[in-house]
User: Which sequence fits this backbone?
Protein backbone atom coordinates (compact mmCIF):
# COMPACT_ATOMS: atom_id res chain seq x y z
CA UNK A 1 0.00 0.00 0.00
CA UNK A 2 2.83 2.43 0.77
CA UNK A 3 3.76 2.72 -2.90
CA UNK A 4 0.33 4.27 -3.58
CA UNK A 5 1.27 7.64 -2.10
CA UNK A 6 0.66 9.26 -5.50
CA UNK A 7 -2.98 8.16 -5.27
CA UNK A 8 -3.44 10.37 -2.20
CA UNK A 9 -2.86 13.35 -4.49
CA UNK A 10 -4.62 11.97 -7.56
CA UNK A 11 -8.01 11.49 -5.85
CA UNK A 12 -8.69 15.12 -4.80
CA UNK A 13 -7.01 16.38 -7.98
CA UNK A 14 -9.43 14.31 -10.04
CA UNK A 15 -12.30 15.65 -7.94
CA UNK A 16 -11.23 19.24 -8.65
CA UNK A 17 -10.89 18.57 -12.38
CA UNK A 18 -14.29 16.85 -12.51
CA UNK A 19 -16.12 19.65 -10.72
CA UNK A 20 -14.47 22.40 -12.76
CA UNK A 21 -15.36 20.77 -16.09
CA UNK A 22 -18.65 18.97 -15.47
CA UNK A 23 -21.01 21.89 -15.72
CA UNK A 24 -24.05 23.24 -13.90
CA UNK A 25 -25.82 19.91 -13.84
CA UNK A 26 -23.42 18.86 -11.05
CA UNK A 27 -24.33 21.83 -8.83
CA UNK A 28 -26.77 19.70 -6.84
CA UNK A 29 -24.19 17.11 -5.77
CA UNK A 30 -20.74 18.54 -6.56
CA UNK A 31 -20.07 19.27 -2.88
CA UNK A 32 -20.67 15.60 -2.07
CA UNK A 33 -18.16 14.48 -4.71
CA UNK A 34 -15.51 16.84 -3.32
CA UNK A 35 -16.12 15.71 0.26
CA UNK A 36 -15.97 12.05 -0.78
CA UNK A 37 -12.65 12.62 -2.57
CA UNK A 38 -11.10 14.24 0.50
CA UNK A 39 -12.48 11.49 2.74
CA UNK A 40 -11.14 8.79 0.39
CA UNK A 41 -7.63 10.28 0.63
CA UNK A 42 -7.97 10.32 4.42
CA UNK A 43 -9.01 6.66 4.56
CA UNK A 44 -6.14 5.66 2.27
CA UNK A 45 -3.72 7.76 4.31
CA UNK A 46 -4.92 6.16 7.54
CA UNK A 47 -4.43 2.65 6.11
CA UNK A 48 -0.92 3.57 4.98
CA UNK A 49 -0.16 5.09 8.40
CA UNK A 50 -1.22 1.87 10.13
CA UNK A 51 0.99 -0.12 7.78
CA UNK A 52 3.88 2.20 8.59
CA UNK A 53 3.25 1.63 12.31
CA UNK A 54 3.78 -2.08 11.80
CA UNK A 55 7.26 -1.61 10.34
CA UNK A 56 10.60 -1.33 12.12
CA UNK A 57 11.87 2.21 12.70
CA UNK A 58 14.56 1.85 10.04
CA UNK A 59 12.05 0.74 7.42
CA UNK A 60 9.49 3.54 7.79
CA UNK A 61 10.18 5.36 4.54
CA UNK A 62 8.99 4.38 1.07
CA UNK A 63 9.76 6.46 -2.04
CA UNK A 64 7.70 5.88 -5.17
CA UNK A 65 8.66 7.30 -8.57
CA UNK A 66 6.12 7.86 -11.31
CA UNK A 67 8.91 8.31 -13.85
CA UNK A 68 11.30 10.99 -15.04
CA UNK A 69 10.02 14.55 -14.98
CA UNK A 70 13.12 16.44 -16.15
CA UNK A 71 16.22 15.00 -17.81
CA UNK A 72 18.47 17.76 -19.16
CA UNK A 73 22.20 17.17 -19.22
CA UNK A 74 23.35 16.44 -15.69
CA UNK A 75 20.04 17.60 -14.20
CA UNK A 76 17.62 14.77 -13.49
CA UNK A 77 14.35 15.01 -11.56
CA UNK A 78 12.08 12.07 -10.83
CA UNK A 79 8.41 12.70 -10.20
CA UNK A 80 8.73 10.91 -6.86
CA UNK A 81 6.91 10.92 -3.55
CA UNK A 82 8.06 9.80 -0.11
CA UNK A 83 5.71 8.41 2.51
CA UNK A 84 7.54 8.38 5.84
CA UNK A 85 6.93 9.18 9.49
CA UNK A 86 6.92 12.95 8.91
CA UNK A 87 4.80 13.08 5.75
CA UNK A 88 2.34 10.52 7.15
CA UNK A 89 1.37 12.87 10.00
CA UNK A 90 0.83 15.71 7.56
CA UNK A 91 -1.26 13.49 5.30
CA UNK A 92 -3.58 12.65 8.20
CA UNK A 93 -3.78 16.29 9.27
CA UNK A 94 -4.43 17.67 5.78
CA UNK A 95 -6.99 15.08 4.73
CA UNK A 96 -8.59 14.58 8.16
CA UNK A 97 -9.09 18.24 9.06
CA UNK A 98 -9.67 18.98 5.37
CA UNK A 99 -12.55 16.50 5.22
CA UNK A 100 -14.15 17.98 8.34
CA UNK A 101 -13.90 21.42 6.74
CA UNK A 102 -15.51 20.04 3.57
CA UNK A 103 -18.41 18.72 5.68
CA UNK A 104 -18.72 22.04 7.52
CA UNK A 105 -18.71 23.90 4.20
CA UNK A 106 -21.73 21.93 2.99
CA UNK A 107 -23.78 23.87 5.52
CA UNK A 108 -21.79 27.12 5.50
CA UNK A 109 -21.89 27.53 1.70
CA UNK A 110 -25.36 26.01 1.24
CA UNK A 111 -26.85 29.12 -0.34
CA UNK A 112 -23.87 30.20 -2.42
CA UNK A 113 -24.65 29.93 -6.13
CA UNK A 114 -21.01 29.07 -6.89
CA UNK A 115 -20.75 26.34 -4.26
CA UNK A 116 -19.57 23.66 -6.72
CA UNK A 117 -16.63 25.83 -7.77
CA UNK A 118 -15.77 26.49 -4.12
CA UNK A 119 -15.56 22.77 -3.41
CA UNK A 120 -13.47 22.25 -6.54
CA UNK A 121 -10.98 24.80 -5.20
CA UNK A 122 -10.96 23.03 -1.81
CA UNK A 123 -10.06 19.75 -3.56
CA UNK A 124 -7.38 21.50 -5.60
CA UNK A 125 -5.89 22.92 -2.42
CA UNK A 126 -5.87 19.51 -0.71
CA UNK A 127 -4.13 17.93 -3.73
CA UNK A 128 -1.49 20.68 -3.90
CA UNK A 129 -0.79 20.50 -0.17
CA UNK A 130 -0.39 16.73 -0.34
CA UNK A 131 2.02 17.12 -3.25
CA UNK A 132 4.04 19.55 -1.15
CA UNK A 133 4.43 17.29 1.88
CA UNK A 134 4.93 14.04 -0.03
CA UNK A 135 7.50 15.34 -2.54
CA UNK A 136 10.86 13.59 -2.60
CA UNK A 137 12.47 16.42 -4.56
CA UNK A 138 12.53 20.16 -3.90
CA UNK A 139 11.33 20.82 -7.45
CA UNK A 140 8.31 18.53 -6.99
CA UNK A 141 7.76 20.21 -3.62
CA UNK A 142 7.85 23.54 -5.43
CA UNK A 143 5.10 22.32 -7.75
CA UNK A 144 2.87 21.70 -4.73
CA UNK A 145 4.14 24.94 -3.18
CA UNK A 146 2.93 26.96 -6.17
CA UNK A 147 -0.28 24.92 -6.41
CA UNK A 148 -1.08 25.86 -2.82
CA UNK A 149 -0.41 29.50 -3.68
CA UNK A 150 -2.79 29.35 -6.64
CA UNK A 151 -5.53 27.57 -4.68
CA UNK A 152 -5.24 30.01 -1.78
CA UNK A 153 -5.54 32.93 -4.22
CA UNK A 154 -8.72 31.43 -5.66
CA UNK A 155 -10.20 30.70 -2.23
CA UNK A 156 -9.29 33.96 -0.50
CA UNK A 157 -10.77 35.92 -3.40
CA UNK A 158 -13.69 33.55 -3.90
CA UNK A 159 -16.22 36.30 -3.16
CA UNK A 160 -14.65 38.38 -5.91
CA UNK A 161 -17.64 40.71 -6.05
CA UNK A 162 -16.22 42.24 -2.86
CA UNK A 163 -13.33 44.62 -3.70
CA UNK A 164 -11.78 43.88 -0.30
CA UNK A 165 -11.70 40.12 -1.04
CA UNK A 166 -10.17 40.65 -4.48
CA UNK A 167 -7.53 42.97 -3.00
CA UNK A 168 -6.76 40.51 -0.19
CA UNK A 169 -6.28 37.65 -2.66
CA UNK A 170 -3.95 39.76 -4.78
CA UNK A 171 -1.98 40.85 -1.73
CA UNK A 172 -1.56 37.27 -0.51
CA UNK A 173 -0.51 36.16 -3.99
CA UNK A 174 2.09 38.91 -4.42
CA UNK A 175 3.67 38.57 -0.97
CA UNK A 176 3.82 34.80 -1.37
CA UNK A 177 5.60 35.33 -4.71
CA UNK A 178 8.25 37.30 -2.81
CA UNK A 179 8.78 34.28 -0.57
CA UNK A 180 8.71 31.96 -3.57
CA UNK A 181 11.69 33.80 -5.01
CA UNK A 182 13.72 32.61 -2.02
CA UNK A 183 12.46 29.08 -2.57
CA UNK A 184 13.40 29.18 -6.26
CA UNK A 185 16.89 30.46 -5.44
CA UNK A 186 17.28 27.68 -2.86
CA UNK A 187 16.50 25.05 -5.51
CA UNK A 188 19.00 26.66 -7.88
CA UNK A 189 21.60 26.61 -5.11
CA UNK A 190 20.98 22.90 -4.58
CA UNK A 191 21.56 22.21 -8.27
CA UNK A 192 24.67 24.40 -8.40
CA UNK A 193 26.40 22.71 -5.45
CA UNK A 194 24.96 19.19 -5.41
CA UNK A 195 23.93 18.67 -9.02
CA UNK A 196 20.46 17.64 -7.85
CA UNK A 197 17.39 18.97 -6.05
CA UNK A 198 16.59 15.66 -4.33
CA UNK A 199 15.75 16.39 -0.69
CA UNK A 200 17.42 13.19 0.57
CA UNK A 201 20.62 13.79 -1.40
CA UNK A 202 20.90 17.42 -0.28
CA UNK A 203 20.39 16.41 3.36
CA UNK A 204 22.98 13.62 3.03
CA UNK A 205 25.61 15.72 1.26
CA UNK A 206 25.24 19.04 3.07
CA UNK A 207 28.35 18.26 5.12
CA UNK A 208 30.44 18.19 1.91
CA UNK A 209 30.02 21.92 1.28
CA UNK A 210 31.31 24.90 3.21
CA UNK A 211 29.48 26.47 6.10
CA UNK A 212 28.86 29.56 3.95
CA UNK A 213 26.97 27.53 1.35
CA UNK A 214 24.96 25.73 4.06
CA UNK A 215 24.08 29.07 5.64
CA UNK A 216 23.06 30.59 2.30
CA UNK A 217 20.88 27.59 1.48
CA UNK A 218 19.30 27.64 4.95
CA UNK A 219 18.52 31.36 4.74
CA UNK A 220 16.99 30.96 1.27
CA UNK A 221 14.78 28.14 2.53
CA UNK A 222 13.79 30.30 5.51
CA UNK A 223 12.98 33.13 3.09
CA UNK A 224 10.54 30.86 1.31
CA UNK A 225 9.13 29.57 4.59
CA UNK A 226 8.43 33.10 5.85
CA UNK A 227 6.19 33.80 2.86
CA UNK A 228 4.04 30.69 3.17
CA UNK A 229 3.87 30.70 6.98
CA UNK A 230 3.24 34.46 7.33
CA UNK A 231 6.34 34.99 9.42
CA UNK A 232 8.19 38.26 9.90
CA UNK A 233 8.78 40.17 7.66
CA UNK A 234 6.36 38.61 5.13
CA UNK A 235 3.36 38.38 7.46
CA UNK A 236 1.26 41.29 6.18
CA UNK A 237 -1.00 39.17 3.94
CA UNK A 238 -2.46 36.92 6.62
CA UNK A 239 -4.97 39.20 8.32
CA UNK A 240 -6.30 40.56 5.03
CA UNK A 241 -6.84 36.96 3.89
CA UNK A 242 -9.70 36.71 6.41
CA UNK A 243 -11.84 38.23 3.64
CA UNK A 244 -12.29 34.71 2.27
CA UNK A 245 -15.10 32.39 3.45
CA UNK A 246 -14.50 31.15 7.00
CA UNK A 247 -13.85 27.50 5.98
CA UNK A 248 -10.95 28.85 3.93
CA UNK A 249 -9.53 30.49 7.03
CA UNK A 250 -9.76 27.19 8.90
CA UNK A 251 -8.17 25.18 6.10
CA UNK A 252 -5.44 27.54 4.94
CA UNK A 253 -4.70 29.66 7.98
CA UNK A 254 -4.96 27.08 10.75
CA UNK A 255 -4.17 23.54 9.69
CA UNK A 256 -2.32 23.45 6.38
CA UNK A 257 -0.84 26.19 4.19
CA UNK A 258 0.63 28.37 6.94
CA UNK A 259 2.36 25.31 8.38
CA UNK A 260 4.16 24.60 5.08
CA UNK A 261 7.10 26.78 6.10
CA UNK A 262 7.55 24.84 9.33
CA UNK A 263 7.40 21.59 7.36
CA UNK A 264 10.06 22.90 4.96
CA UNK A 265 12.47 23.74 7.79
CA UNK A 266 11.98 20.40 9.53
CA UNK A 267 12.21 18.43 6.28
CA UNK A 268 15.49 20.24 5.53
CA UNK A 269 16.79 19.63 9.06
CA UNK A 270 20.29 18.57 7.99
CA UNK A 271 20.76 21.86 6.16
CA UNK A 272 19.92 23.84 9.29
CA UNK A 273 21.92 21.51 11.53
CA UNK A 274 24.95 22.31 9.35
CA UNK A 275 24.50 26.06 9.91
CA UNK A 276 24.04 27.44 13.43
CA UNK A 277 23.69 30.88 11.84
CA UNK A 278 20.68 29.81 9.77
CA UNK A 279 19.13 28.18 12.83
CA UNK A 280 19.68 31.38 14.78
CA UNK A 281 17.74 33.30 12.14
CA UNK A 282 14.91 30.75 12.37
CA UNK A 283 14.74 31.28 16.14
CA UNK A 284 14.78 35.07 15.74
CA UNK A 285 12.04 35.04 13.09
CA UNK A 286 9.91 32.69 15.19
CA UNK A 287 10.29 34.71 18.39
CA UNK A 288 9.57 38.07 16.72
CA UNK A 289 6.49 36.68 14.96
CA UNK A 290 5.32 34.93 18.12
CA UNK A 291 5.23 38.18 20.07
CA UNK A 292 4.03 40.35 17.18
CA UNK A 293 1.10 38.07 16.39
CA UNK A 294 0.09 37.94 20.06
CA UNK A 295 0.21 41.75 20.23
CA UNK A 296 -2.07 42.05 17.20
CA UNK A 297 -4.45 39.44 18.61
CA UNK A 298 -4.94 41.58 21.73
CA UNK A 299 -6.26 44.59 19.83
CA UNK A 300 -8.45 43.31 17.00
CA UNK A 301 -12.24 43.41 17.45
CA UNK A 302 -12.83 41.34 14.29
CA UNK A 303 -13.05 37.77 15.61
CA UNK A 304 -11.40 36.25 12.53
CA UNK A 305 -8.56 38.78 12.45
CA UNK A 306 -7.89 38.23 16.13
CA UNK A 307 -7.64 34.50 15.41
CA UNK A 308 -5.37 35.28 12.45
CA UNK A 309 -3.02 37.20 14.74
CA UNK A 310 -3.12 34.17 17.02
CA UNK A 311 -2.20 31.94 14.07
CA UNK A 312 0.84 34.11 13.34
CA UNK A 313 1.86 33.77 16.96
CA UNK A 314 1.40 30.00 17.16
CA UNK A 315 3.27 29.42 13.90
CA UNK A 316 5.99 31.54 15.49
CA UNK A 317 6.13 29.00 18.33
CA UNK A 318 6.58 26.21 15.79
CA UNK A 319 9.27 28.11 13.89
CA UNK A 320 11.05 28.85 17.16
CA UNK A 321 11.02 25.16 18.05
CA UNK A 322 12.30 24.21 14.59
CA UNK A 323 15.18 26.65 15.07
CA UNK A 324 16.24 24.77 18.21
CA UNK A 325 17.38 21.92 15.98
CA UNK A 326 17.32 18.30 17.18
CA UNK A 327 16.01 19.52 20.54
CA UNK A 328 12.93 21.04 18.95
CA UNK A 329 12.02 19.43 15.61
CA UNK A 330 9.60 16.93 17.12
CA UNK A 331 8.02 19.57 19.35
CA UNK A 332 7.54 21.90 16.36
CA UNK A 333 5.59 19.18 14.55
CA UNK A 334 3.74 18.21 17.75
CA UNK A 335 2.50 21.77 18.24
CA UNK A 336 1.73 22.01 14.53
CA UNK A 337 -0.62 19.03 14.83
CA UNK A 338 -2.36 20.14 18.02
CA UNK A 339 -2.68 23.69 16.68
CA UNK A 340 -4.25 22.30 13.51
CA UNK A 341 -6.98 20.77 15.66
CA UNK A 342 -7.79 23.55 18.10
CA UNK A 343 -7.30 26.47 15.70
CA UNK A 344 -9.42 24.84 12.97
CA UNK A 345 -12.00 24.26 15.70
CA UNK A 346 -11.98 27.93 16.67
CA UNK A 347 -12.02 29.27 13.11
CA UNK A 348 -15.00 27.08 12.31
CA UNK A 349 -16.51 28.12 15.63
CA UNK A 350 -16.07 31.76 14.59
CA UNK A 351 -17.86 30.90 11.36
CA UNK A 352 -20.67 29.37 13.36
CA UNK A 353 -20.95 32.56 15.41
CA UNK A 354 -21.01 34.63 12.23
CA UNK A 355 -23.67 32.30 10.81
CA UNK A 356 -25.89 33.04 13.81
CA UNK A 357 -25.06 36.76 13.83
CA UNK A 358 -25.85 37.63 10.19
CA UNK A 359 -22.14 37.56 9.25
CA UNK A 360 -21.20 40.24 11.78
CA UNK A 361 -17.52 39.77 12.76
CA UNK A 362 -17.26 42.53 15.38
CA UNK A 363 -16.97 41.00 18.86
CA UNK A 364 -18.08 44.29 20.38
CA UNK A 365 -21.54 43.50 19.03
CA UNK A 366 -21.66 39.96 20.44
CA UNK A 367 -21.99 39.07 24.12
CA UNK A 368 -24.04 36.42 25.97
CA UNK A 369 -23.99 33.97 23.04
CA UNK A 370 -23.32 30.91 25.21
CA UNK A 371 -27.03 30.31 25.78
CA UNK A 372 -28.06 30.99 22.17
CA UNK A 373 -25.32 28.81 20.68
CA UNK A 374 -24.45 26.13 23.30
CA UNK A 375 -22.64 23.64 21.02
CA UNK A 376 -20.54 26.39 19.46
CA UNK A 377 -19.79 27.74 22.92
CA UNK A 378 -18.62 24.46 24.42
CA UNK A 379 -16.56 23.38 21.42
CA UNK A 380 -15.00 26.82 21.05
CA UNK A 381 -14.34 26.79 24.79
CA UNK A 382 -12.39 23.53 24.51
CA UNK A 383 -10.30 25.09 21.75
CA UNK A 384 -9.72 28.08 24.02
CA UNK A 385 -8.53 25.87 26.86
CA UNK A 386 -6.20 24.03 24.49
CA UNK A 387 -4.57 27.13 23.03
CA UNK A 388 -3.88 28.72 26.42
CA UNK A 389 -2.40 25.43 27.62
CA UNK A 390 -4.92 24.37 30.24
CA UNK A 391 -3.63 21.23 32.01
CA UNK A 392 -4.68 18.02 30.27
CA UNK A 393 -5.48 19.59 26.90
CA UNK A 394 -3.31 19.05 23.82
CA UNK A 395 -1.92 22.57 23.90
CA UNK A 396 -0.70 22.08 27.46
CA UNK A 397 1.64 19.30 26.32
CA UNK A 398 2.80 20.76 23.02
CA UNK A 399 3.38 24.39 24.00
CA UNK A 400 5.04 23.57 27.33
CA UNK A 401 7.51 21.31 25.51
CA UNK A 402 8.56 24.24 23.31
CA UNK A 403 8.96 26.58 26.29
CA UNK A 404 11.07 23.99 28.14
CA UNK A 405 13.30 23.44 25.09
CA UNK A 406 13.61 27.20 24.53
CA UNK A 407 14.68 27.80 28.15
CA UNK A 408 17.25 25.02 27.85
CA UNK A 409 18.63 26.64 24.68
CA UNK A 410 18.72 30.25 25.90
CA UNK A 411 17.09 31.83 28.93
CA UNK A 412 16.04 34.98 27.06
CA UNK A 413 14.50 33.02 24.22
CA UNK A 414 12.63 30.94 26.79
CA UNK A 415 11.38 34.06 28.55
CA UNK A 416 10.11 35.40 25.22
CA UNK A 417 8.18 32.17 24.65
CA UNK A 418 6.84 32.37 28.22
CA UNK A 419 5.64 35.95 27.70
CA UNK A 420 3.91 34.79 24.52
CA UNK A 421 2.00 32.20 26.56
CA UNK A 422 0.74 34.88 28.93
CA UNK A 423 -0.35 37.20 26.12
CA UNK A 424 -2.07 34.28 24.38
CA UNK A 425 -4.10 33.65 27.53
CA UNK A 426 -5.01 37.35 27.64
CA UNK A 427 -6.31 37.78 24.09
CA UNK A 428 -8.07 34.42 23.98
CA UNK A 429 -9.83 35.12 27.28
CA UNK A 430 -10.76 38.53 25.90
CA UNK A 431 -12.30 36.80 22.87
CA UNK A 432 -14.28 34.36 25.02
CA UNK A 433 -15.59 37.11 27.31
CA UNK A 434 -16.55 39.48 24.48
CA UNK A 435 -18.26 36.75 22.47
CA UNK A 436 -19.98 34.39 24.90
CA UNK A 437 -20.26 36.19 28.25
CA UNK A 438 -21.55 39.49 29.63
CA UNK A 439 -24.66 41.19 28.37
CA UNK A 440 -25.94 40.97 24.81
CA UNK A 441 -24.86 43.79 22.53
CA UNK A 442 -26.59 42.55 19.39
CA UNK A 443 -28.21 44.73 16.81
CA UNK A 444 -32.00 44.63 16.80
CA UNK A 445 -32.25 42.79 13.49
CA UNK A 446 -29.94 39.99 14.64
CA UNK A 447 -31.39 36.80 16.14
CA UNK A 448 -28.55 34.47 17.25
CA UNK A 449 -29.15 30.75 16.72
CA UNK A 450 -27.19 27.54 16.72
CA UNK A 451 -25.77 26.28 13.45
CA UNK A 452 -27.13 23.14 11.76
CA UNK A 453 -25.67 19.74 12.64
CA UNK A 454 -23.66 19.56 9.42
CA UNK A 455 -21.65 22.49 10.82
CA UNK A 456 -21.59 21.56 14.51
CA UNK A 457 -20.53 17.92 14.00
CA UNK A 458 -17.05 18.90 12.70
CA UNK A 459 -16.79 21.26 15.68
CA UNK A 460 -17.42 18.38 18.09
CA UNK A 461 -14.84 16.15 16.40
CA UNK A 462 -12.21 18.89 16.37
CA UNK A 463 -12.96 19.73 20.01
CA UNK A 464 -12.37 16.09 20.95
CA UNK A 465 -9.06 16.11 19.08
CA UNK A 466 -8.12 19.37 20.80
CA UNK A 467 -8.63 17.65 24.12
CA UNK A 468 -6.98 14.30 23.53
CA UNK A 469 -4.25 14.87 20.92
CA UNK A 470 -1.82 15.40 23.77
CA UNK A 471 -1.53 11.63 24.07
CA UNK A 472 1.17 11.88 21.38
CA UNK A 473 3.47 13.18 24.11
CA UNK A 474 3.03 10.09 26.29
CA UNK A 475 6.16 8.00 26.44
CA UNK A 476 7.89 10.41 24.05
CA UNK A 477 5.94 8.77 21.20
CA UNK A 478 6.07 11.79 18.89
CA UNK A 479 9.86 12.06 19.24
CA UNK A 480 10.45 8.37 18.62
CA UNK A 481 8.05 8.31 15.67
CA UNK A 482 9.75 11.25 13.95
CA UNK A 483 13.31 10.15 14.67
CA UNK A 484 13.81 8.35 11.31
CA UNK A 485 12.82 11.55 9.47
CA UNK A 486 14.30 14.28 11.70
CA UNK A 487 17.18 12.53 13.42
CA UNK A 488 17.74 11.64 17.04
CA UNK A 489 16.30 14.20 19.47
CA UNK A 490 18.97 15.79 21.65
CA UNK A 491 17.74 17.35 24.86
CA UNK A 492 19.50 19.78 27.15
CA UNK A 493 18.61 20.36 30.77
CA UNK A 494 16.62 23.57 31.33
CA UNK A 495 17.79 25.97 34.05
CA UNK A 496 14.96 24.86 36.35
CA UNK A 497 13.28 21.51 37.08
CA UNK A 498 10.48 20.66 34.67
CA UNK A 499 7.82 20.78 37.38
CA UNK A 500 8.93 24.29 38.36
CA UNK A 501 8.79 25.46 34.73
CA UNK A 502 5.31 23.97 34.38
CA UNK A 503 4.12 25.83 37.47
CA UNK A 504 5.64 29.09 36.22
CA UNK A 505 3.92 28.67 32.85
CA UNK A 506 0.60 28.02 34.56
CA UNK A 507 1.04 31.11 36.74
CA UNK A 508 1.84 33.26 33.70
CA UNK A 509 -1.21 31.88 31.88
CA UNK A 510 -3.38 32.49 34.94
CA UNK A 511 -2.10 36.07 35.08
CA UNK A 512 -3.09 36.59 31.44
CA UNK A 513 -6.57 35.22 32.12
CA UNK A 514 -6.96 37.41 35.22
CA UNK A 515 -5.89 40.58 33.40
CA UNK A 516 -8.39 39.87 30.61
CA UNK A 517 -11.16 39.32 33.14
CA UNK A 518 -10.32 42.60 34.88
CA UNK A 519 -10.42 44.47 31.56
CA UNK A 520 -13.39 42.73 29.88
CA UNK A 521 -15.16 40.59 32.46
CA UNK A 522 -15.92 43.08 35.22
CA UNK A 523 -17.10 45.74 32.79
CA UNK A 524 -18.90 45.58 29.50
CA UNK A 525 -16.93 46.60 26.40
CA UNK A 526 -18.43 49.44 24.40
CA UNK A 527 -20.53 48.39 21.42
CA UNK A 528 -18.38 50.65 19.22
CA UNK A 529 -14.60 50.74 19.28
CA UNK A 530 -13.07 53.96 20.68
CA UNK A 531 -11.22 56.21 18.25
CA UNK A 532 -7.47 55.85 17.90
CA UNK A 533 -6.99 59.17 19.70
CA UNK A 534 -8.68 57.70 22.78
CA UNK A 535 -6.56 54.55 23.11
CA UNK A 536 -2.96 53.77 24.00
CA UNK A 537 -0.09 53.38 21.56
CA UNK A 538 -0.17 49.64 22.26
CA UNK A 539 -3.74 49.41 20.97
CA UNK A 540 -3.18 51.78 18.03
CA UNK A 541 -0.12 49.84 16.87
CA UNK A 542 -1.95 46.51 17.20
CA UNK A 543 -4.94 47.80 15.25
CA UNK A 544 -2.52 48.93 12.53
CA UNK A 545 -0.93 45.46 12.57
CA UNK A 546 2.29 46.97 13.94
CA UNK A 547 2.39 49.24 10.90
CA UNK A 548 3.47 46.37 8.68
CA UNK A 549 1.40 47.65 5.76
CA UNK A 550 2.70 51.20 6.23
CA UNK A 551 6.30 49.95 6.33
CA UNK A 552 5.78 47.84 3.20
CA UNK A 553 4.19 50.83 1.52
CA UNK A 554 7.10 53.13 2.44
CA UNK A 555 9.92 50.70 1.69
CA UNK A 556 8.52 48.79 -1.28
CA UNK A 557 5.23 49.98 -2.78
CA UNK A 558 5.90 53.72 -3.11
CA UNK A 559 9.57 53.40 -4.22
CA UNK A 560 8.60 50.81 -6.82
CA UNK A 561 5.68 52.99 -7.94
CA UNK A 562 7.97 56.02 -8.34
CA UNK A 563 10.59 53.90 -10.11
CA UNK A 564 7.96 52.55 -12.48
CA UNK A 565 6.68 56.04 -13.26
CA UNK A 566 10.24 57.22 -13.87
CA UNK A 567 10.90 54.30 -16.20
CA UNK A 568 7.65 54.96 -18.07
CA UNK A 569 8.60 58.64 -18.42
CA UNK A 570 12.11 57.71 -19.57
CA UNK A 571 10.74 55.20 -22.02
CA UNK A 572 8.34 57.75 -23.47
CA UNK A 573 10.56 60.81 -23.45
CA UNK A 574 14.06 59.38 -23.94
CA UNK A 575 13.88 55.96 -25.59
CA UNK A 576 10.82 56.70 -27.69
CA UNK A 577 12.16 60.24 -28.24
CA UNK A 578 15.37 58.92 -29.73
CA UNK A 579 13.56 56.48 -31.99
CA UNK A 580 10.59 58.57 -33.08
CA UNK A 581 12.59 61.82 -33.00
CA UNK A 582 15.19 60.45 -35.40
CA UNK A 583 12.43 59.23 -37.69
CA UNK A 584 10.74 62.65 -37.55
CA UNK A 585 13.99 64.51 -38.43
CA UNK A 586 14.67 62.20 -41.36
CA UNK A 587 11.09 62.75 -42.50
CA UNK A 588 11.56 66.53 -42.34
CA UNK A 589 14.79 66.36 -44.36
CA UNK A 590 13.09 64.14 -46.90
CA UNK A 591 10.31 66.67 -47.17
CA UNK A 592 12.75 69.48 -47.97
CA UNK A 593 14.57 67.35 -50.51
CA UNK A 594 11.27 66.44 -52.12
CA UNK A 595 10.35 70.06 -52.90
CA UNK A 596 12.53 70.37 -56.06
CA UNK A 597 10.90 67.25 -57.47
CA UNK A 598 7.99 69.11 -59.12
CA UNK A 599 7.22 66.63 -61.90
CA UNK A 600 7.47 69.30 -64.68
CA UNK A 601 9.79 68.49 -67.63
CA UNK A 602 10.63 72.14 -68.20
CA UNK A 603 11.89 72.45 -64.66
CA UNK A 604 14.09 69.40 -65.02
CA UNK A 605 15.45 70.73 -68.41
CA UNK A 606 16.25 74.04 -66.81
CA UNK A 607 18.07 72.28 -63.97
CA UNK A 608 20.08 70.18 -66.47
CA UNK A 609 20.98 73.27 -68.42
CA UNK A 610 21.94 75.11 -65.30
CA UNK A 611 24.06 72.20 -64.18
CA UNK A 612 25.81 72.03 -67.55
CA UNK A 613 26.60 75.73 -67.41
CA UNK A 614 28.06 75.34 -63.95
CA UNK A 615 30.29 72.52 -65.18
CA UNK A 616 31.45 74.53 -68.25
CA UNK A 617 32.20 77.56 -66.16
CA UNK A 618 34.15 75.39 -63.76
CA UNK A 619 36.23 73.89 -66.59
CA UNK A 620 36.84 77.34 -68.09
CA UNK A 621 38.06 78.65 -64.75
CA UNK A 622 40.47 75.78 -64.39
CA UNK A 623 41.82 76.27 -67.97
CA UNK A 624 42.40 79.99 -67.52
CA UNK A 625 44.16 79.35 -64.25
Assistant:
Amino acid sequence: MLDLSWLLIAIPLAGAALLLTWGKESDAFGHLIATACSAASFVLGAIMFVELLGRDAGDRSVTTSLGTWIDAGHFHVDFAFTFDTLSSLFVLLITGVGTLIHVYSIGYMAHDERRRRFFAYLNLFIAAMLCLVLAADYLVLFLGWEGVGLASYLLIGFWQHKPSAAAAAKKAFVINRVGDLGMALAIMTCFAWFGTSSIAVVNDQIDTVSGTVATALGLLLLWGACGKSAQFPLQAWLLDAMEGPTPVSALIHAATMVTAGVYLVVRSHDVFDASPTARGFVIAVGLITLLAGAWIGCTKDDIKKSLAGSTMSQIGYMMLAAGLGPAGYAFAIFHLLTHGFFKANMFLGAGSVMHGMNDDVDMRRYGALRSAMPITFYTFGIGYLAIIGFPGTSGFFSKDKIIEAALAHNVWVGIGALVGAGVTAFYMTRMMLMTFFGEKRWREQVHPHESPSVMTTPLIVLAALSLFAGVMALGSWIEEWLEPATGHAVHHDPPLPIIVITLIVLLVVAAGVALAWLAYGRQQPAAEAPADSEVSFFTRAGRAELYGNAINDALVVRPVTHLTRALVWGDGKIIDGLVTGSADRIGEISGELRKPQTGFVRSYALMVLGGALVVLLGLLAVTLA
